[in-house]
Design goal:
By secondary structure, the chain is of the alpha+beta class.
């Protein structure tokens, strides 16, 4: 059975802690986010389990910084769940919403668990 394109992309890119992997992830995510704006940077530190993101959202005059600390990857059937530990936003109202609704939330990631663990 042929492996999904995502699997091949990650295999070629190696690790998302690398500059090549981060650029590749930016391209993939920006394709999904284009109606909202553009993600200008993402830095994943799999050792400290942290993610730093910067986005330029439509209608906003400045980039917004997002920080996720203490994430955990948990297997979930054919995919995985990314459990967010602490999340913070540089925009106050977003930070309040995130702390209320996203802290310790579990997000479904449609990627096989073994592959997700390689990239996160």
């Amino acid at each position: 059975m042929k492996k999904p394109l995502w699997h091949e992309i990650v295999r070629v890119a190696g690790c998302l802690d690398s500059a090549t992997g981060n650029h590749l992830l930016l391209c993939l995510l920006n394709n999904k986010l284009k109606e909202f704006g553009v993600m200008t940077s993402i830095l994943i530190d799999s050792k400290s389990k942290s993610i730093a993101i910067e986005v330029e959202l439509k209608g906003e005059d400045r980039p917004i910084r997002i920080r996720i600390d203490g994430y955990v990857v948990e297997p979930d059937g054919d995919g995985s769940r990314l459990k967010i530990g602490n999340i913070s936003f540089s925009k106050e109202w977003m930070d309040v919403l995130a702390k209320k609704f996203l802290a310790n939330a579990k997000l479904s990631i449609p990627v096989p668990p073994d592959l997700l663990e390689q990239i996160l």
